Amino acid sequence: MVRPSDISRTLFIISCSAAKNPEHQKAEKWMDILGLKECSNFLEFSSLRKQLLDFYSGIDSKVLAKEVYRGYRQQNPERWEKAWKTNRTLPKSGVSPAIYRYTGRLYAQLDTLVCSCLADNRLTNVLIISALNGPTIPSDFLPHYDLTMKDLSFDKIELARKWPYWVKVHSSDSLREFLSRFREIYAMVGNDYKPVAKALRDLAPNVKEYKEAPSFGWESGTVWGQQLNSFLSALI
């Protein structure tokens, strides 16, 4: 198993998950907290997030929805309709910390204490790549949404191609300062998220080593979650 050489100086980059908890921990609407530092880090992406919110919540035809929502099309041909209906409510969606919003296989392996430490920033070396929010701290508040990197952005280009570019163009001192704390990056992400992870690596001035966790096929999320839980538990 590929392991980080120094867990305390390693940034673990993980991807968001399709499976999400629809419940909210705060009633505040996502559209109202996008610019608040206490609710969302890396405010340099706020205007971009607002554009994405406006675009997905404003899709008013099935024809456009079918065109935009391309993710998981083979596995679930009707997924587009659920995504369309979910994202139409984005402006009024309540919010929850990212670590509690996502419930996919990786997240399901994190124990209660690890999640609590991520939610209140006692652990600060995990970064989530979100198809909607971009670079996301586990304590950042997110709405309930349905989006994948295969879906199209407002300029009709896949998010998997847009987010690496947006990270390079929109990043400013807050993201760069955060990345400067680490000497190593350990990416536990699928193929669609690797370009974003590498874009983040390129912005990290002190990173000497970039590693990608080996794939375990459809079990990757579970294995990576178990490994991440072990790594993070050692820091508590």
Descriptive account of the structure:
The protein has 236 residues and is an alpha/beta fold. It has one domain (7-233). Helix content is 39%, strand content 11%. The protein is built from eleven helices and seven strands. The strands form two sheets. It has a five-stranded mixed β-sheet with strand order 4-3-1-6-7, with helices on both faces. A two-stranded antiparallel ribbon has the order 2-5. Helix 8 runs parallel beside helix 10. The radius of gyration is 17 Å and the shape is globular. The two termini are 22 Å apart. The mean pLDDT is 95.
Number of helices: 11
Mean pLDDT: 95
| N- to C-terminal distance | 22 Å
Overall number of strands: 7
How many domains would you count in the coordinates? 1
Order of helices and strands: EHHHHEHHHEEEHHEHEH
Identify the overall geometry.
globular
The helix-and-strand class reads alpha/beta
Helical percent range? Answer: 25-40%
Could you list the spans in which at least 5 consecutive residues all have pLDDT below 50? none
| Strand order, largest beta sheet | 4-3-1-6-7
β-strand percent reads 5-15%
**Mind telling me the C-alpha Rg?**
17 Å
Main beta sheet: 5 strands, mixed
Could you give the topology of this structure?
Layout: E1 10-15, H1 30-33, H2 46-57, H3 62-68, H4 79-88, E2 96-97, H5 98-101, H6 105-108, H7 112-119, E3 126-130, E4 134-136, E5 141-142, H8 159-170, H9 173-179, E6 184-188, H10 194-203, E7 209-212, H11 220-233
Parallel strand pairs: 1-3, 1-6, 6-7
Antiparallel strand pairs: 2-5, 3-4
Condensed summary:
The chain has 236 residues and is α/β, with parallel strands linked by helices. Helices cover 39% and strands 11% of the residues.
